[in-house]
Amino acid sequence: MQIPSPESGHRLRLLSYNVQVGISSTQASHYLTKSWKHLLPAARRFENLDRIAQVLRDYDIVGLQELDAGSHRTGYVHLTEYLANKAHYPFWHHQLNRDLGRLAQHGNGLLSRFRPSELSEHKLPGMLPGRGALLTRYGHGEDSLVVIMAHLALSARARERQLGYLIDVINQHRHVVLMGDLNCSHDCREMMLLFRHTHLREPAEILHTYPSWRPERNIDHILVSRELTVERCQVLNHAHSDHLPIAMELTLPQSVVLG
User: Fold this and answer.
1) Structure pTM?
2) Could you state, in order of their start, the residue ranges of all structural domains in the chain?
3) Per residue in 198-256, pLDDT tens?
4) What is the largest CA-CA distance in the chain?
5) Edge-to-edge strand order for the sheet containing 145-151?
6) Which of 21, 97, 140, 193 has minimal CB crowding within 10 Å?
7) 203: phi > 0 → left, psi -120 to 50 → alpha, else beta; which?
């Protein structure tokens, strides 16, 4: 299948979503009552994934966190591939970050309407392995668009190291989007470090995504280079996980050549 490329001045619709391996959590007690679904197969997991796929299909580039590449708990179904097929994405990629064999194949997923010119996986530093970032490039050269999707650690010290690593990656590119579950708010120490040492910015409005049943923390983010024009950024009220999805529509500069 021939996958189209967006043109200069094109509007892009982006979505970032931590889908918690397809587990629908709509109240705090579900962390206990549904915890077995992190280990064992559950038929209703796929009913919930089908609902998630309905949300995803309206976007051009989707970054997903907490997906399984096919293990016992998913009935050996590759969840990134499953969502790509259900939401009709011609291109998808899974970054495996934590390989627990048959028990779990944990990682990040990318869904795209457009064919990337480059994909590179980055293992992020930390005391415990299993955190990663996926870099996707559209176009070539200085005026390409680079989309980095990441899932950062729970520890502030580990996040600072991980964002330090990403700062070096980000500063190699002109037009950058960083999105994902960064596990910290916009005003935490490590995010201030990121904003101070890169050209990334966050939309002015603070958007809360966690927990999905009473969102009071802004830990899921879509950050963009200053030359990318943000038309709209919002949290979607679709509680199919313990996080809510965050969406952005942006316009590319005329200088960006993606074909």
Assistant:
1) 0.94
2) 11-251
3) 999 987 788 999 999 999 999 999 999 999 999 999 999 999 999 999 999 999 988 88
4) 52
5) 118-123, 132-138, 145-151, 175-181, 220-225, 200-201
6) 140
7) beta
